[in-house]
Sequence to fold (329 residues):
Amino acid sequence: MNYYDEVTAFLGNWGRFQKILFFILCASVIPNGLGVLSVVFIVDNPKHHCSIPDVNLTEDWLQAIIPIEVSCIFAIVSAFFAFILVYLHVVLWSKDLKGHRLTWLRTDHPDWDYFGLSDQWKQPFTSTIYFVGVLVGSFFCGQLSDRFGRKPVFFITLGIQTLFTFLQVFSTSWEMYSVLMFFSGLGQIANYASAFVLGAEVFCGNVQTVYTTAGVCLGFSTGYMLLPLFAYFIRQWRFLVLAIALPGAVVIPLWWITPESPRWLLSQGRVEEAEAIIKKAADMNKVKAPSVIFKNYKVDHGNPRQYTVIDLYRNREMRLPSIILPLTW
Fold:
């Protein structure tokens, strides 16, 4: 048992304070899961037939002559008879599509994501842009939370994710949507990492283990599972994006009841603030706190050393885990 766990043992592991914070942090990562796969439902070409007003065919004949494709032009030139029948329609082709009855099709679909045959790369590339944002965010979120605190970074990155997801509602082009997705991904990973670290530092004992291995992951998975449900009932894409953004906006007001990490405050020499949080937690758990909690804690008022990610590889005990974990992710 380390120093912090020992002096805060009087709180217990699962009081009212821990229960409320556990729920808040797990719920806060639900928007992370909602946004990750949103591109599947927003930027997608639903399978369709080209609309050929002059040809009145049954469904079976239509499928045989003009197969369902993601590109109208490709479908036409891929069938010889269809090419003869609708040669003039190829020249005058427009975005007049007929959705197949077995294919999901929103009542309102972004005009800019009906990609032609030469633009099919844009669909997977949109996901790549999102995860490039995730990669960029993962580089600096740890350094920011070490410098400014877990709580500020947690809520600021949640705000970034929520804001840029909301702005996707006003997307008028694929380029605009992709840029907004980049910043959504950046905020997503930084928010998730901050929530993970904040809970890991506040909780102790078995609760800490459950939170870091299951709790925060279940919150993220809940977002995964809610996204298809949202997409099934919300067929207009702008309202779907709005539904993805709103849960983050609901979490932001929880700033006033979410504490800073006492461990981080101690590392910064802010002992009084750390004790105030522990005493408030003791009141919530209905236990009596000592008048001085961190009485043997020594504050270094000199110039403390600033650690970086390089120090993980300098330490013999941390070197191997620091190599293995990025590879597993």
Summary: Residues 48-103 form one domain. The chain has two domains: 3-37+122-292, 48-103. The CA atoms of residues 28 and 134 lie 17 Å apart. The longest helix spans residues 174-202.
